[in-house]
Design goal:
The chain has 358 residues and is mostly helical. The chain has helices at residues 2-21, 26-44, 50-66, 72-81, 86-98, 102-115, 118-125, 132-144, 148-161, 167-180, 183-196, 200-209, 212-228, 232-240, 244-255, 258-262, 265-274, 279-288, 299-319, 323-336, 341-350.
């Protein structure tokens, strides 16, 4: 016990400084987090005397109450590591409750549930029923304690009034419907889950779960979601469905966003898959991604622009077989930037025939 308290006293001055200034440099934060992790490891192997445990917890709780050191996760770990039985956990829960703050109260509630004090758990649970995860927590509690009808009622209510993340609640209800043999309800909940953030993966997963007849019912609903969406995942689904005419129209729509023009590698991959079918559209996209080619900037930016111009070259020369059009496009770019040696050097590294262009 005394050795562990000595370790705490060794780290505490730096922790106090972090708490006073609301954080510190990376080195200091790393040092304190390593000390706290070491303390946790040693606490896991040691039972503190009652007096030493009280002394350590009072210090830890003081910093948790402040919440200004940026070390709360590690401090909670230390607090839990002092607990060796249910009595210790109850004592810790009561200390957390005394802080009268949302996050410590959440910890207290979870402890009461863990040690089987259902009355205290429900008392604290009733204080906060706002998010989907709150309803999921209460629903699983009732399910585990055998009050299954109440669990389902809570979960269904959460689907209606809960806010924020709903994933666990939807999956809970989907699993219950599957267990009861209610195929329609199961698929409805699964559909909501897989389309909440529709991706190519979730699209495939849901389709795999459906029979052919079931897919005929849900497919139009997914298509409707695709038409209303505005992200690269929907474009990937169109490509997967081999609906290339829709894909290119959607590609044009979302590629107008600067993020997709300049940052997203997936868009470039899809562009390469569409270039043979729709070379004019993909050529326009690549030209739009070059940005301003008549301004001074950094070498890094020149290199980025050169890569974009190289993609224009690829479509004109390799796909459309129009080397003359490529020359007509690129020669003015070179000539306008003759007074920028850095520009010329970076483009020469990327464009094969750059130095020979005249």
């Amino acid at each position: 016990s005394s050795a562990l308290l000595s370790l705490w006293r060794e780290l505490e001055p730096e922790l106090s400084e972090l708490d006073e200034y609301g954080g510190g440099d990376y080195g200091q934060e790393d040092d304190v987090s390593e000390y706290l992790s070491e303390l946790c490891d040693k606490l896991d192997e040691t039972t503190l005397s009652r007096n030493d445990r009280d002394e350590l917890l009072e210090e830890v709780i003081r910093y948790l109450k402040s919440g200004n050191a940026g070390m709360d996760d590690f401090l909670y770990d230390v607090a839990y590591a002092t607990c060796k039985n249910d009595d210790d956990l109850r004592d810790l829960a009561e200390r957390f409750e005394e802080l009268k703050n949302s996050w410590p109260t959440d910890h207290a509630r979870r402890i009461y549930r863990r040690i089987g004090d259902h009355k205290k758990y429900l008392e604290l649970r009733a204080l906060k029923m706002e998010y989907g995860m709150d309803y999921y927590d209460l629903a699983t509690f009732y399910w585990e304690t055998g009050e299954k009808d109440k669990a389902l009622d809570i979960a269904i209510k959460g689907m209606t009034v809960g806010e924020g993340r709903m994933d666990e609640l939807r999956l809970f209800l989907a699993e219950r419907a599957k267990e009861s043999g209610d195929r329609n309800a199961y698929l409805d909940y699964l559909f909501l889950q897989k389309t909440d953030r529709l991706t190519l993966s979730s699209y495939k997963e849901f389709k795999k779960e459906c029979s052919n007849k079931e897919w005929e019912e849900y497919e139009p609903r997914i298509v409707d979601l695709l038409e209303k969406s505005d992200n690269v995942q929907s474009l990937k689904i169109y490509m997967h469905r081999k609906e290339y005419d829709k894909a290119i129209q959607y590609f044009i729509k979302i590629s107008n966003h600067s993020y997709y023009r300049y940052m997203d590698s997936e868009i470039l991959q899809i562009a390469s898959r569409l270039e043979n079918r729709y070379p004019e559209e993909i050529l326009t996209f690549h030209k739009s991604s070059t940005g301003n080619l008549d301004t001074s900037t950094s070498r890094k930016d020149y290199r980025f622009k050169a890569e974009a111009v190289k993609r224009v070259r690829h479509v004109l020369v390799d796909v459309m077989k129009k080397p003359a059009d490529w020359r007509k496009y690129v020669l003015p770019i070179k000539m306008k930037n003759m007074g920028r040696p850095a520009f010329q050097e970076e483009f020469a590294k990327v464009i094969p025939e750059w130095k020979e262009l005249k």
